Amino acid sequence: MTELLLERARSGDEQAFAELTEPFRRELQVHCYRILGSLQDAEDALQETLLAAWRGLDGYEQRASMRTWLYRIATNRCLNSLRATDRRAPVQPQFGDVVVPQPTRETDIIWLEPIPDLLLEGLPDSAPGPEAMYAASESISLAFITVLQTLPPRQRAALILRDVMGFRASEVAEMLESSEESVTSALKRARATLADDPELRHAPPPRPDSPEERELLRKLTIAYETADVDALIALLTDDVWMRMPPAPLEYQGRELTAEFMTAVAFRPGREFRVLPTRANLQPAFGFYVRDEATGLFRAYGVLVFTLSGDAISAITRFDNSVLAGFGLPRTLPGR
């Protein structure tokens, strides 16, 4: 940041303001996504952050870096959003006459959305501070984002700022307009919640595009495109979770997953195709079902896979509302 750019922006030069803030735009969007769990909500919060920064530029005293100042605004815009907004109402999935197995449980976290890997490219390697406790791949995984949504908002913000982004405790306290003691207390409780969550204690996944990951995805593609329940179940961990936001239903374990896939997803007469993509630094598929009337394969959402060693520990299916973010088509030609 140069004094000249700041002076120009304060005088009303929008181009100068864009030059000041553009280097931080992508990481601020990801920061908002971690807090809110929804890419749509994160984009709204980002726009509110930039508008607030533009309007408040005269009040920026340069006691902190431009990046830290923007993180403070973004964090508080997200907290305001969480206080002011009732999260989305659960959607009851329509399965027609199919008898749906009883789920393991119903969740309140039905606003969760994936973030395409394209939006994670180009993030500065130096963004996390030296005290960050989580690697980038950990801190953007669906499992991590889901657990974050169970934390009270201020605990969530404190943990992200301190343990993910690596800001100092004093900086976090100033951003949250709180004391260091309060931040330390919030962090202690948030860390305890994460430490107790079994989904965050799975074996690490194989490296992206490694031979191990490619082989697992090859088997997964065949299982889906041949509607082979047994082949799919063989790729799962014993405690696998299957989720489908914004529907609240959650199924755990191979047996229940097999029951659901047999009765619902892979029921007789259905044909499928998948297109590989990536979300949350995890492998994903665009999922397509053949339309008997036209022969076309119509989009049925995006499947994101959480890998644990050489197996799959979670399958999360998102509806067609997320397709555009991945550049996926609504239909594929028939075979």
Structure characteristics:
alpha+beta, 8 strands, 16% strand
Descriptive notes:
- Helix 3 (39-55) crosses helix 4.
- Strands 1, 2, 3, 4, 5, 6, 7 and 8 form an eight-stranded mixed beta sheet that branches.
- The chain is an alpha+beta fold.
- The longest helix is centred in the N-terminal third of the chain and has 23 residues, at 14-36.
- It has helices at 3-10, 14-36, 39-55, 66-84, 136-139, 142-148, 153-164, 169-175, 180-196, 211-225, 229-233, 254-265, and strands at 105-106, 236-243, 249-252, 272-279, 282-290, 297-308, 311-318, 331-332.
Brief summary:
With about 325 residues, the protein is of the alpha+beta class.
Detail the topology: elements first, then pairings:
Elements lengths: L2 H8 L3 H23 L2 H17 L10 H19 L20 E2 L29 H4 L2 H7 L4 H12 L4 H7 L4 H17 L14 H15 L3 H5 L2 E8 L5 E4 L1 H12 L6 E8 L2 E9 L6 E12 L2 E8 L12 E2 L3
Parallel strand pairs: 2-7
Antiparallel strand pairs: 1-3, 2-3, 4-5, 5-6, 6-7, 6-8
Helix pairs in contact: 1-2, 2-3, 2-4, 3-4, 4-8, 7-9, 8-9
Bulk shape: globular
Number of strands: 8
Rg from alpha-carbon coordinates: 22 Å
Number of helices: 12
**Unreliable residue stretches:** none
